[in-house]
Write a structure and sequence with these properties.
The chain is of the alpha/beta class. It is built from 13 helices and 16 strands. The chain has a 9-stranded mixed beta sheet with strand order 3-2-1-4-5-7-6-8-9. A 7-stranded mixed beta sheet has the order 11-12-10-13-16-15-14. A hairpin with a 2-residue loop joins β15 and β16. α1 crosses α4, α3 packs antiparallel against α4 and α6 packs across α7.
């Protein structure tokens, strides 16, 4: 968002017009809305600003729910913003630690600062970008215990604060930055803050685990089947005895696996009636072994994340499939098997096999009223095709 666009948006006319718009639905709505707003006498700049913001508000509903209707966003800020239900858990750590004044460094649009302020904790949100800081100021305006400063976080004076939260920017204008030294601020700077104050750092879930300090608690978080982040917590914000955690948040609430370290591998055994695919946060936290043992299962291969059992167990940490049929992976045989079962709708999953599901689907020429799941993987080192159903 350009400064001129923000100025248009923050004018009394701009905010009234934005709040009067119906919910954004399709590009057809935008075309019609542009014509109607221009006909009503609004300037081209204002029309562009409010319609762009209307689109972002609709997109933000998945992260912020009804709160999105009263917030402002930038495209980059919304992409990196913490989901409100996760931000609330971040804030809860600061409250549980008894911290009273938090510096939210690289605050973006202010999602985490908002959650912290909602718990009556003083928070100062800091961002280097002028437009982003202004957007955060708007979003945090309802909280008297929150304020925003535009500053370079690497030069910000932390005197008086007793806790830090940091979400380094991991994208440039056009691409994702893979080198932690290029992040803003760098990962070394972020982790270095923990030598001064209790610190929480939000990172992408795919970070090289070797970069995570041994003394920190690393919590991978899944929301709605997507692994959205890993939180790295230091000092009072790290829970005693916990260094690895997998938090799964779904429609039925939240559940968590925790451990003092990576879990030991579970034993490998024969394929049973049920196959389980661990949640991504469990895989990234390397807690599969603990989960398998808890459910009385066994691995199907020492290098594959799937595990199996002879009994059905309910767990929020894995998806369960009932194995219908097993055969060696062969495309011609697979095509015959699916045709014989009249399977026309097929979910294809794979682990440990170099197969292009889209290309395979074309070769299978699916036809029929039945549905199934095809799991391509290795069992005991051998490539197999498992015909299954979601249980």
């Amino acid at each position: 968002m350009e400064t001129s666009e923000l100025v248009e948006l923050l004018s009394p006319e701009g905010l009234r017009l934005l709040d009067s718009l119906p919910r954004y639905e399709t590009t057809d709505d935008v075309v019609r809305s542009v014509a109607e707003l221009r006909k009503a006498g609004h300037s081209p700049g204002l029309v562009a600003a409010v319609l762009s913001q209307s689109k972002l508000r609709a997109k933000a509903a998945s992260k912020f729910g009804p709160f999105a209707e009263r917030m402002l966003f930038t495209e980059a800020g919304l992409e990196q913003a913490t989901r409100l239900q996760v931000a609330a858990r971040h804030a809860g750590r600061y409250q549980a630690a008894g911290l009273t004044w938090i510096a939210d460094l690289g605050c973006g649009i202010g999602a985490d600062a908002l959650a912290i302020a909602a718990l009556d904790i003083e928070v100062t949100a800091v961002d280097r970008d002028e437009v982003t800081a202004a957007v955060a100021s708007f979003n945090l305006a309802p909280w008297a215990n929150a304020r925003v400063e535009q500053a370079d976080v690497t030069e910000f004076d932390l005197t008086g604060f007793d806790g830090i939260y940091l979400d380094p920017a991991r994208r440039s204008a056009s691409r994702r930055l893979t080198n932690p030294a290029d992040w803003s601020p760098s990962l070394d700077f972020a982790f270095g803050l923990a030598d001064r104050l209790p610190t929480g750092v939000k990172l992408g879930p795919g970070i090289d685990r070797a970069l995570i300090p041994a003394e920190a608690e690393a919590q991978w978080v899944t929301v709605g089947h997507d692994v959205v982040e890993v939180g790295v917590w230091f000092g009072l914000l790290a829970r005693p005895g916990i260094r690895r955690a997998a938090l799964v948040i779904g429609d039925n609430g939240a559940a968590e696996l925790t451990a003092s370290d990576d879990s030991e591998d579970a034993e490998v055994g024969s394929l049973g009636e049920f196959l389980y695919e661990p949640d991504g946060s469990v895989i990234r936290a390397r807690l599969i072994g603990d989960l398998v043992r808890t459910l009385g299962g066994r691995m199907i291969d020492p290098t594959i994340a799937y595990f199996t059992s002879d009994v059905a167990s309910d767990t929020p940490f894995a998806t369960r499939f009932r194995v219908v049929s097993t055969f060696p992976y062969d495309e011609r045989q697979l095509k015959k098997e699916l045709a014989a079962r009249k399977i026309g709708t097929l979910e294809i999953k794979k682990r440990g096999m170099d197969v292009d599901p889209a290309a395979l689907r074309k070769k299978l020429a699916l036809k029929g009223p039945e549905t199934a799941t095809l799991i391509l993987t290795r069992v005991g080192g051998k490539r197999v095709a498992l015909l299954a159903s979601r249980d």
